[in-house]
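question for whoever is on the cluster today: can someone run the full assembly for these? two chains, 735 residues total. i dont have access anymore since they changed the login thing
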Amino acid sequence: MKKAISLLTALSFCVYLAGCSTDTGTSSSSDSGSESSGKKTITLWTFADTHKQYYDEMKANYEKDHPDINIKIELLEYSAMFDKYTVISQSGGKGAPDLIDVEQGAFPRYIKGDVPFEPLNDYMETAGLSDAIPKGRLDLYTVNSNIYGIEIAACVSALYYRKDLYDAAGIDVPSLKTWNDFMEASKPLIDKDKFVLSGSEKDQGLFEQLLRQEGGDVVTSDGKIGFNTPTGIEVLTRIKDWKDQGFLSKSMPEGPQYWEAFTNGKFIAAFGPDWWAGQLVQNSPDLSGKWAAVPMPLGGPSSVQTSVNGGTGLALSKFSANKDAAWDFLKYTHLDTDNIVESFRIINLFPALTSATQSPDLHKESDTTKYFGGQDIAQLYADLGTQAPSQNQAWWRSLVGKAWDKFEPDYQNGKMTPEAFLGNVEKELQSLIDAEQARK
Amino acid sequence: MTSHASARLKIAPFLFISPFFIAYAIFGLYPILYGFWLSLMKGTDSYTFAGLSNYLFVFKDGFFWKAMWNGTKLALGSLFLILPVALGVSLLLNRPYISKKKGFFATFFFTPNITSAVAVGIIFKLLLERDSGFLNSILGVFGVDPIGWLKDPAWTIPALIILCGWKYLGVNILFFLAGLQNVPNELIEAAKIDGATPAQRLWYVTMPLLRPIMTFIVFQCLLGSYGMFSEAFILANSGFGPENSLVFPTSYLYDQAFRRQDFTYSSALGYVFTLMMLVIGFIQLKMFNLKDQEG
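^ ran it for u. tokens below:
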């Protein structure tokens, strides 16, 4: 009887615990990196479907050459992926992937405390790749001289425009050297439902990109708040003027409708980095052959013809049970000249890898060159890359959005001038920084 | 031997109920106590004792109070819009000529409640989109200018109330229907004979008898409003919405823990929030005068 009761108790407890289990059956790197078949499984998390497309091609080739390795690519929603990795890293690493695509905007959250990624300096040095990527593209993922992520793209921005429409209107875009010239010339092509560029209720992204074009940044090179400056005010005022004059839309459609707006001709130009153009090619295929790209028009006296926007570094998880194998795949996808050139062909990521930028294969015909009317777009990115501004990192950078959001609706409704708005955002940001520091 | 058998019999019931308590101790009590310990610490990876400083920060944290204020707005909207509609529908469903179809209507209204909050959030995000959303298209037919339901801070809470109305109307109808079963028909009949109008019968007979269930419904409503997470999180694109108008206490403590890696402060936020919910609950019980009802 006693035994029966004990057994029943134990059994019911096990059933209860099994019910509580949240294990979805996915393999985790730290505890099941090796499979019974003897193959090692390397799991890679990414948030960008374009990246997944590239990784899938690389996986097929890599697995052919490495029959003992199984690569598992998992596509997750942006916020969910980083939140999930934070939880995993705070709870011992069970279920962590071996490799994870860390978007530069998400990286600062991992800077506090122990960074949950493996420093790559030694791996790079051993492979003789320490200088393979310009320092500026690695700074975004570097803490205390430790490099935690390898950037894949240069992220240099260009101006893209509907060549068919501008040509039909007799407008020679390459000859328009300033934003003022470009917008004035575009006037005949717009009306109340047609805009030159897509704007939104939130100017932050556009502001940051244009600020970097002017040599500024949200974070200064010495880690201080850098946007509430005369240049910052000038940039925000320019965005406001564009909206007031109907060059820039005041709202932005979301999801597939965003690309549909380009297909329908609601927006006839855009500026953005290589990866943005790659998305345009994929999402608005009907416009193939109708676009062209040129350097960005100039704004203020210190502006350059390009900017940088975004970036993603592939990081090696600190919890990976197969670090060497994972590093080998990272090297294969991000530091191999031929593969990086392929990434440009597949998803238009212009290489951050210096050896790849000199490859003649970048200039071969591809879906992207066809999309841009046969233009050698790689040459454009290569030329712009030499003037590309730097992008600085700070632990508090993700707080900028919080401070910005607090005042933006009032600013957009005309209740604040650009000066007052940037002043308020800086003040709020400083108080958020102070509060976090005080709690440390 | 007999004494052994009797001891075993005494232990047996405790063994039968022990799985729940063991699981609760591990998954409920331990996190609660650990959370309290964390709330007295500071640090990210290694913790040092910080006394009550995290609690002092909570009281000075404008963001937390903004989140509480958003919860209050949602609670007011739920109390004064969703609950009266739920009561109205349940009174209708309780009419004799509908009672045969009561089950069908109850299921009809209840279905949204069992739909995943994430799925509901995504669908409503599409419906509430300013330029191409269904709701604005309908309003456009009546000449209403497009509303930035999720872009304009003045409209985000109304948008959330619309969503909550759709999702939680059914469960509140069920609660009210359950409460209405306890209203004796004889009392209504007696009131009718005495010449009471339908409004008087509702106010003086039905409503007082619904008070016990109302206490529960209102508390559920308050708890759900202040504890709002999934739907607001999805509507705000995993953020806090324009002018932080979609931040709620739970989403703020989630942000502090899993995005800012500030688990100690997040724990303090959790404790302050729980205490405030208890205070609100007590005030509500006092207002509903539950003790008098029991007496």
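summary bc i know u wont read the tokens: The CA atoms of residues 55 and 172 of chain A lie 39 Å apart. Chain A is about 45% helix and 10% strand.
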